[in-house]
Amino acid sequence: MRYLGNRIRWFWSDFWNDERGMGTVEVILIIVVLIGLVIIFKSQITDVVNTIFEKIVSQSSSV
Questions:
Q1: pTM of the model as a whole
Q2: CA distance 56 to 39
Q3: What's the mean per-residue pLDDT of the chain?
């Protein structure tokens, strides 16, 4: 049982001090912030996209 406790302690120590996973954490935080911004500005983003598509449709008929 003591061996298992030491292995768990080593695992958590290595896991906590390992900096290779920091890239993953940073990417997840960036994605969360972007999703939050999209939720906050959803109506403005929808208006801009609709305006762009209306211009594309109107100008594509003249080509």
A1: 0.51
A2: 25
A3: 85
